[in-house]
Write a structure and sequence with these properties.
Aminopeptidase, nine-stranded mixed beta sheet, disordered C terminus, 214 residues, alpha+beta
Length: 214
């Protein structure tokens, strides 16, 4: 497997990865999770935040995208402060220029079946923290179900809610922030069995070895 860091404007190879990512997101978030507001006739999950401000962290196995996430700087238009601003009742921990919003985390459904821990999920968690450190962010915000908060805490991250959970589409949902630090990266690597860096010095991609816990 490989980790790819993709931003617009993208070259042809990266554009193909992005298109695959958008179609997978539609299958995951619309067809499986029922986010009908995202449904599009072209079968692509693309919103206003898939722009030149966004960084896409994509996991591939061969030529296939098998997982992904999106990172958007908090001092640029982002999902948290527009669509989900009602979930934020507490102050951000620092200036928005020091933060990033983490959205659209997914692993292709067939890669999760029968697994105790998907290596794609582990790679995304480690890559997101690596990327945040490399870019100089001090915290990451996210909106998710309670499960995601519990999962993040389980890998040794310090997570602070930004407000009380609210019901969205019948599920308790909250906004929270994650402290970005070398300790947080060490903790998630230890919890997942990941031992090497996933993002190359140039920031394009890095191969994933066999150190992930299946």
């Amino acid at each position: 497997m490989r980790v790819h860091i993709v931003r617009e404007p993208a070259d042809r190879q990266s554009r193909d990865l992005l298109e695959h990512n958008y179609r997978l997101r539609h299958k995951v978030f619309v067809e499986r999770q029922g986010w009908e507001a995202l449904r599009r006739p072209d079968g692509r999950d693309v919103d206003d935040f898939d722009n030149e401000d966004a960084t896409h962290i994509l996991i591939t196995d061969g030529k296939d995208v098998v997982g992904g996430s999106r990172i958007t700087p908090l001092d640029r238009p982002n999902l948290l402060q527009t669509v989900f601003h009602g979930l934020v009742q507490e102050d951000l921990p620092a200036d928005p220029s020091l933060g990033a919003d983490w959205t659209r985390f997914y692993v292709r459904p067939d890669r999760r079946e029968g697994r105790r821990r998907a290596p794609e999920s582990a790679a995304l968690f480690c890559s997101v923290m690596e990327y945040a450190l490399r870019e100089g962010f001090s915290y990451i915000t996210f909106v998710s179900s309670i499960y995601m908060l519990e999962h993040g805490t389980a890998v040794g991250w310090r997570i602070t809610p930004l407000g009380r959970p609210q019901s969205i589409d019948g599920k308790p949902t909250l906004a929270a922030w994650i402290e970005v630090s070398e300790d947080a990266l060490d903790n998630v690597r230890r919890a997942t069995g990941m031992r090497q860096a996933l993002i190359s010095g140039q920031g394009h991609f890095s191969a994933i070895g066999n150190s992930l816990i299946p």
